[in-house]
């Protein structure tokens, strides 16, 4: 392998890794909001049905 193709391969792997990490953060943040909203809804329902 030439040095140029090795660097290109490394750069592409780094780019795909960064995109995966950023996408994962958004997914986890969204899941956290969904879980929080579910908890709020359960709490509201419990208060209404006392």
Descriptive report:
This protein is mainly α. Helix content is 92%, strand content 0%.
Concise structural overview:
The chain is mostly helical and 50 residues long. The protein has one helix at residues 3-48.
Radius of gyration: 22 Å
* Fraction of residues in β-strands: under 5%
Q: Name the helix and strand elements from N-terminus to C-terminus, one letter apiece.
A: H
Query: Helical percent range?
Result: over 70%
Shape: rod-shaped
Pick out its properties.
mainly alpha; 0% strand; 1 helix; single chain; 50 residues
Element layout with pairings:
Layout (H helix, E strand, L loop, with lengths): L2 H46 L2
């Amino acid at each position: 392998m030439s040095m140029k193709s090795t660097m290109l391969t490394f750069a592409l792997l780094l780019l795909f890794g960064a995109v995966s990490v950023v996408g994962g953060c958004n997914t986890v943040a969204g899941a956290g909001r969904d879980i929080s909203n579910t908890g709020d809804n359960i709490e509201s329902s419990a208060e209404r049905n006392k």
